[in-house]
Write a structure and sequence with these properties.
alpha+beta; 6-stranded antiparallel sheet; single chain
Amino acid sequence: MKKRARLKEQVVSALEMPSELAYHDSIVTLTGPREVLVENYRCICRYTPEEIVIRTLRGKVTICGKGLEILWYTPGEMKIKGCISGIFPQGQEE
């Protein structure tokens, strides 16, 4: 398995691909204190006006605040607005 992972790393490096694309890493972009764009997520685990928990390939991301709402979402992206007080990544679950 290590050999396969090394090969993938070499291909990604040779093609100069961004790691987010190659490994399907999530990208969380905070665009001011009131908007967040989340890319490459898997599903929405919890959705309340104070907390939104999103599952990613590598674990979960919790967005905390007040008046949170999902403006729109597609299978690959979502836009969240509200008074954002924190964004907390959590590692892989066992």
